[in-house]
Amino acid sequence: MTVRPVLSSATRKLTHDVDVMDERGRSSIIAIPAEQPLTIYVDKRELVTLMTLGGAPEALTLGYLRNQRLIRDIEDIVSVQVDWDVDAAVVVTRGGLGEVAERVARQTVTSGSGAEGSVFTDLMEEVDTISLPADARLKQSTLQTIIEKVRTHRSIYKQAGSLHGCALFSSEGELIYFAEDVGRHNAVDAIAGKMWFDGVPGGDKIFYTTGRLTSEMVMKGAQMGIPFLLSRSGATQMGHMLAERLNMSLFARCSGPHFLLLSGTERFIFDVETSKNVS
Amino acid sequence: MTVRPVLSSATRKLTHDVDVMDERGRSSIIAIPAEQPLTIYVDKRELVTLMTLGGAPEALTLGYLRNQRLIRDIEDIVSVQVDWDVDAAVVVTRGGLGEVAERVARQTVTSGSGAEGSVFTDLMEEVDTISLPADARLKQSTLQTIIEKVRTHRSIYKQAGSLHGCALFSSEGELIYFAEDVGRHNAVDAIAGKMWFDGVPGGDKIFYTTGRLTSEMVMKGAQMGIPFLLSRSGATQMGHMLAERLNMSLFARCSGPHFLLLSGTERFIFDVETSKNVS
Questions:
Q1: ipTM for the complex?
Q2: Model's pTM, two decimal places?
Q3: Where in chain B is the domain with CATH 3.40.140.10?
C-alpha cells in the first residue's frame, strides 16, 4: 500500500476586485485573477518561488517536485503544508532531495529560467526512454464530449480571464481533474501533482490545455505518460517534432466539432457521421 | 560615443509546414511557427538554452543578458555571433560576467525556472528603486492609432498562429520595433535588446504585448523604463499591484476603441469625442 503524504488544504481568494476606467471615462469594478508568490521549502531549504493563482497549492507543489524530477517516489514525501500567511509551501521528505536530485535541480534551472524551454535540455535526453501506449484509442465522439465539457466547465477564467486551464479526462470522456493558474506550467504541474498523489496512471487518459502545444507542453504530457494531448490553440515546430518522435496524438485548434490532428493519427477513431461533423 | 557590440545577422525559416487531418478526415498542410533551441555561451561558458522562433536571435541574446541583469553596460559586450548550424549564440565580453553577475545569475535561475515568476524575487527588491517619468502623457487618439497599427501589422502570427508579439511605439504612435516569439518573455527580451543596442530610452515610449499583464511583464516594462503598458489581454493581481506601486499606466483588453485603464490614470488624456469613441 502506498503511503501518501499528509497535505494541508490551504485556501485563499482567487479573484481580486480592481477599479478600472474605460474608453468613455466610465469607472467600474472588475475581477482579475489573484497572483501570489508561493515559496517552496524542502526540508527547511528554500527551493523556488512560483507565482500562482493559488487554487491548488499542495498539488502544484507536488507536481513541481515531480516534473522537475526532484523526487521520484511519492512515498518519499512525508507532508506538504501550505500557509498563505507567509506564502510558503513547507515540504518534509524522508530522505532529502539527495545528491542526484540536487544536481538535477541545478541543471534544470540553468537550462532556461523564464523561458519556454526551461526543462528542455534535461528532457531531450529522456524522450527516447519514454514509451507511450500504442494501443490507446480515442473516439471522435469522446473528443467532442471533452471539448464540450471544457467549454461549459465552471472556471475562474470565466469570472476573471487571464488564466490558463488544463484538464485530465478518462478514455470515456469523464473529467477527472481541472486546474487553472496564471502560468500554464503551473496548471499542468497541479494536474501532475494530483495524478501522483492519487496514483492515477496516464496511459489511457486525455490531457486538455488552453495553452499552445510547445515542446515543453508535449514533454510534460509525455512525462505523465499521456498519449493524447488536446489544445484549443496551435502547435509549434518543436512540439510537433517531439510528438512525432514520442508517437503522441496531438490535436490542435479544438473548438466545437473542429480540430487538427498533427500526429499519432492511428490512435484516432472516426465514429461521428460526416454530416453531423461540421457545424 | 558608445561602442556597440558587433552582431551577426543570422536568419532561418520562421515557419514549418506540417500535414494535418481535420474532423472530416481531410488532409491538408498548415504552417506552424518554428521553434529552435538557442544556447547562449558567454566567454565560452554555457549560460542558458532558450526555445525561440528565431526571428531576432542577436536582439534576444542581448535582451536576455540585460533583463537578467547579467551585463549592465552594452559597451562590455564585444560581439554576439549566432550560428543556426549549431543553435548557438556566442557572446564575447570585455570583462566577463564578474562575480556579482554570477551570483545574480544563480539567484535568478533559483527563483523559478519554468514559472511565471522567474525573475520575481530579484525584482521585488528593485521595484522601489525604479522611477517612471511622472510627466509622460498618452493621448487616447494615439492609443487608438497604436491598437490599429498592431492589428494590421504583418506578422508570422497571421501565417502560423501560436506566437506572442510585442511592440514599442513612440509617444506619437510610431512603431519603432516589433518582435514575435514562441514565448512572450523572449519577445519582450528581443525588444529590450534592440533598445539597448540602439540606445533608445523607454521614458516616453509605449509598450504593447499580446500577452497578459502579469507581475513579470510589468517588471520587464519597468526595467525598460517604460511608463505605458498595453495588452489585448487582461491583468493579474500582482501585475496590477506592481503597476500601482510603480505608477505605471496599465491598459488591459485593448481592442478597437476599447480598453480598460487599471492604473496611472493621470497620465492619460481623453482627446477623442465620446460619440466616436465606442464602436
A1: 0.80
A2: 0.85
A3: 138-277
